[in-house]
Amino acid sequence: MTDLTSRPAPVSVMKLPGFLRLLTGRSLSFLATALVPTALTLAVIEATGSATDLGLVLAAELVPQLALLPIGGVVADRFPAQRVAFVADLIRGIAQLAIGAELLAGSVRIVDLAVLSAVTGAAIAFGTPTMSPLVAATVPQESRMQANGHLGVARGIALVAGPGVAGVLVVAVGAGWAFLATAAVFGCAAVTLGGLPSVTPARDGRPGFFRQLADGWQEVRSRPWFWSNLIGHGVSNLAAGVLMTLGPLIAVERLGGEFAWVVVYQAGMAGMLIGAFVAPRLNVRRPLVVTSLCGALFALPLITFAARWPTWTDALAYGIAMLGIGVLNTLWQTTMQRHFPAEALARADSYDALLSFAARPLGLAVAAPVAALTGEALPLLIAAVLVVVANLAVIALPDARALTARAPQDVNPR
Asked: What is the CATH number of the domain that holds 288?
């Protein structure tokens, strides 16, 4: 629901000192991150042509992410997020530089690519939880919705442009040079963090590392509105994995070929960009009610693909669903930054990312085997039901309905 009553307009975030630098740096990091999967896939296919090798290299990046994300959250809360993000981007850049050098040398070994991918995944685990602390340190509370909207648009553009740019680079100059270019982008992203406002956590009386790790879980567990949303987001990501597996197959087999899937996918990316752009312009009183409704919209493309409706229907449904995701991401990040204490923001971010990173690969893994046994419609419809139930169930929680977009003291987390 939205509040149509007037309230003071926040300061334009682009006028805030430091935000343009933050936006530029994170946009470069988003772009470099989006370049890596396509470039790596093409490099492995060119080197060995083995699906097993490709799966090994991609898994080598994912496993450290899942294992280290909670630890990365603690580190980003214990040390200035600016420095943690700088080191994470720098390490990712060095890893891409090493991959590029090996490809240019012509002595490609899958074990080397897997190790360097694991290093990249570990760096992602430490860099991901720094986003909310960076925003909180740079942007005052009343302008964070704008900031998260701009960052959401930048992330969406990177997701759309990254695979295409990576493909063009690999074809035009070769995979080795593509990785060197990616390393340079990561380096530029790291450099832009210099000069950003940085909050140094107090050391006096600070608990030990493992105590902070346990306290981070307690911060999550003590807020039903937070962990219930994490479940909803995890289910949505699992459903996205199902759709990303079965959608292209249905498009190729029954909707006229690869072009049909391209149309659907691009409609979704356009919808996400529009959602991120629109979200800061909404006066939302109850953000978690809105995010729950937006999350439930992801059931639409699952239903249309299961029903084997025409391509334009699938594209419209996916566009609406991803518009909802664009709004959801912006509202959710702002709500987290408002209702978690600054010293626990990175740990909250890490658990949010952990469930998302884990759920989508699970959807990718189970969709095809289940579809082989039952047909494609059943897993899509099951995923649709789960998405609706998991997201709308959040609205039943009193503290989720009570949480407002105004004061961070609205709901006592204890």
From this structure: 1.20.1250.20
